Amino acid sequence: MTPTIVSCVDVGRTYGYGPTALVALHSTTCDVVDGSRIALVGPSGSGKSTLLHLMAGLDHPTVGTVDWPAIGPIEALRPGPVGVVFQRPSLLAPLDVGENVAVPLLLAGVDPTTAHDAAVEALAQVGLADLVDKLPEELSGGQAQRVAVARALVGRPRLILADEPTGQLDHESAAAVIDALVGAAEHSGAALVVATHDPAVADRLDERWPLRDGALHAAVAIPTRPTHDAPPSVPASLEPTP
Ligand SMILES: Nc1ncnc2c1ncn2[C@@H]1O[C@H](COP(=O)(O)OP(=O)(O)OP(=O)(O)O)[C@@H](O)[C@H]1O
Ligand SMILES: [Mg+2]
């Protein structure tokens, strides 16, 4: 059976309390299995970032459970098995590119020389090994996002989560970033979940998971790519709500 990387069971996330409480996500049950390539799609405010943050263990559900069966307890998630790429620039300005990419390994206690070598290898995978000594301010937006992809893959993750990674980029840079993400997932054998408004990004993945009003609806296979070996990762119970 294909291992389940992250499993959400009847998950909900409400922000705030009382009359002003806002239900960002509700009644969401889904499994991301090994090898998945998933686009989380839906209008602004539909809950895409909320669900990604729960899958990353960066936030906790107010109801339901999120587990990482193939990884272990939440303490095991970082640094390493889960790599996250954010929409906004997330590189640390005083550190050069190589140091930025090495950060997750340094935090994990890897010795600096090994961490640096791994950072150079990860940068090479996204085609940016020659930028290793640059500062973030010297990069274009597209290059900075590819460096963020290299940082997400340096710990050889089982799961890569990206939140609108191409949201602020032109078409060409966006294509390079999605190439880097798909290549990174393939290289490290990771599952990939990308929240996106961009149909060109969604078309590069295998499945589309539509979110509407904080609820996940039935997954749609994206026919433009050959079907992946992995079986459909949304359980049959995820029928469209009327
Ligand atoms: N920290 C927060 N406090 C209060 N409400 C929040 C918070 N984060 C998100 N929300 C609300 O939760 C809902 C879902 O937000 P979320 O960011 O998950 O949407 P999204 O689908 O990622 O939207 P976008 O496409 O604009 O990024 C929205 O109504 C949003 O205003
Ligand atoms: Mg969002």
Poorly predicted ranges: 226-242
Name the CATH class. Alpha Beta
Question: Structural class, from helix and strand content?
Answer: alpha/beta
Give the number of helices: 6
What distance lies between the first and last C-alpha atoms, to the nearest angstrom? Answer: 32 Å
Q: What fraction strand?
A: 15-25%
Please tell me the overall pLDDT.
Answer: 88
Would you identify the CATH architecture?
3-Layer(aba) Sandwich
In the CATH hierarchy, what is the superfamily?
Answer: P-loop containing nucleotide triphosphate hydrolases
Share of helical residues: 25-40%
Which term fits the overall shape? globular
Count of individual domains = 1
Element order, helices and strands? Answer: EEEHEEHHHEHEHEEE
Total strand segments: 10
Can you tell me the CATH topology? Answer: Rossmann fold
* Unique ligands: adenosine-5'-triphosphate, magnesium ion
Secondary structure layout:
Blueprint: E1 4-15, E2 22-33, E3 37-41, H1 48-56, E4 63-67, E5 82-85, H2 97-107, H3 112-125, H4 141-153, E6 159-163, H5 171-188, E7 191-195, H6 199-202, E8 207-212, E9 215-216, E10 220-221
The structure holds adenosine-5'-triphosphate (ATP) and magnesium ion.
Give an overview in words:
This protein is α/β, with parallel strands linked by helices. Helix 2 (97-107) packs across helix 3 (112-125), helix 2 (97-107) packs parallel to helix 4 and helix 4 packs parallel to helix 5 (171-188). The strands form 2 sheets. Strands 3, 5, 6, 7, 8, 9 and 10 form a 7-stranded mixed sheet that branches. Strands 2-1-4 form a 3-stranded antiparallel sheet, covered by helices on one side. The chain is built from 6 helices and 10 strands. Bound molecules: adenosine-5'-triphosphate and magnesium ion. Adenosine-5'-triphosphate binds next to strand 2 and helix 1.
